[in-house]
Amino acid sequence: MEQLSNLLGGFADIMSPSALLFVFLGALMGTAVGVLPGLGSAMAVALLLPLTFVLDPTSALIMFTGIYFGGLFGDSIAGFLMNTPGNSTAIASTFEGHRMALRGKAAQALATGAIGAFIGGMVASALVVFFAPTLARLATGFGPAEFLALAVFAFVAISAVVADSAIRGVAALAIGLTLALIGIDQPSGSPRFSFGFSPLLDGISIVVITVSLLALGEVFSQAAKVGRAQDTKAVMPTGRWWLSKAEFRQALPAWLRGTAIGVPFGVIPAGGAEVPTFLAYGTERRLDRRKAEPTFGKGAIEGVAAPEAAGNATAGTAMGALLALGLPTSATAAILLAAFQQYGLQPGPLLLERSGDIVWALLAGFFLAMIVLLILNLPFAPLWAQLLRVPKSYLYAGIAVFAAFGVYAAGASTVDLVIMLVLGVLGLAMRLYDIPVAPVLIAVILGPLAEYSLRDAMGNSDNDPAVLVSSPITVVLYLLLLAGLAWTAWRRYAEKQAADV
């Protein structure tokens, strides 16, 4: 098949000592940042983004495969050992993973998570290889109205799903769109929201926005908690880091079910892997209740296996949606889209045609990153756990310095450092008022696309608004959006009713 030959060509491009080194370094750094409490995979990508600007596109992007998937597993290590997951996508597996750690099975919990992440990621990567080109060919039929519908779908879906309050989700969306509008309006050449300050005419770099809101906002948030929060003690993993035959047989069905649940969610703008990981956890819990001796609540291995596989499966297919449609379905994917754009690459239907060599090398890097991460995370999990001993005061001071260096290196501008401080305070305010960051990043990335598509569609139709819903694709997207909003509202109503009982 054509996809297999292209994939083999991608492997040929990355099977060099330098490329293997970049994948290894990416996996190493991604896991190291992800494992630190309060940071997580999205911050791993944001913090390490400026480091890749000195590399060629292929080396930089395959390095990001390691950072991307390594950060996801790092999230779970902190959850299992400290009961403080690095990201919301690791919450579901933390429930049973931490209970396993308390029972002296921390090493087995980490092994279960690592193998689950490997299985979910490998299956998702294989599906991306075979279906991303088809999805890209279908997307070539998209016009301005279809791309606008896709952007609106992402805006509304992520704002509704990731926030407990629709008002907070819309507020986050408004912040992101406002930041995206800063600079020169390309069609008219008029300055927008620059307030007569010439450095703002070029807009605000996505690197500055992501590092400020994710990294510096978290630093300020932790500083605001000084004296009110205590460091959580970690449970150090001991014993065997492999699974017995009985444990493997027990976890295998859960890995497969979790993978099946996670795969479709990668192409749905639902804010990341929160929904599929909780669905996978809930499925295993319902199946456990049918057993003669239920194990959930006591450290059930299925409660770790399914969410971990679901999370990485979602992350893998999310990359497929990003490459084929140019659609980031999570905050981390939005940052990766920014990484593509830094190299003049625009993910979407034409990416495979224009930069096929880079894309297939990147897809080959997915598989390589999974293997490297399995090797790193199985026997060396106890070493990762030692990072949890780093005092928070040292940790967050280092993050602030690293963030400042990264922002300055990206633009060589002291104005960017001032903007970073201002947006860092905004990030603190968003945390204080529980306003999610993901919709801001999605809006900043997709805002220009939505604006351009709207103008183009209206200009080509003599300002007839009917053109926005004139094709089957737009109608289907808006109907799916309405159905998703109805389901989200019903789910939250049911949860509220259950809480009141």
From TrEMBL:
Transmembrane segments: 20-49, 61-81, 109-132, 138-158, 165-184, 196-216, 321-340, 360-384, 396-429, 435-454, 466-490
InterPro entries tied to this protein: DUF112_TM (IPR002823)
Keywords for the protein's UniProt record, in alphabetical order: Membrane, Transmembrane, Transmembrane helix
The organism's place on the tree of life at top rank: Bacteria
Domain spans labelled DUF112: 20-441
Listed Pfam families: TctA
Record-given protein name: DUF112 domain-containing protein
Species annotation: Pseudonocardia saturnea
